[in-house]
Amino acid sequence: MVYFAWDSSDISDRSADVISKAVNQARECGIAAVIIEGHADRSGSQSYNTALSGRRARAVRDEMVRLGIPASAISVQAFSEDRPAVETPDGVREPLNRRVEAIIELN
Question: Which CATH class is domain 2-106?
């Protein structure tokens, strides 16, 4: 799980560390596939949040590729505000909803 600042798809140093540790641990077991799911809070329009969650997911994918995971093993999905970790009313900035979940399938 990687979290993002409001209205951002930039990977923080802490998030880069989380991604690196996950990749290194998974590499020891053999990575079959990675599913990356981008999410957003409800502070913007649905269309904006869909684009933002896609940018977040691609940022995590790009970092994983930089760390040696083959791009062909990674699929990316943007869920926008449709699958919140914390239910909120429209317009609420919820930090736990601004995230990317990476599901690593092992061999």
Answer: alpha beta
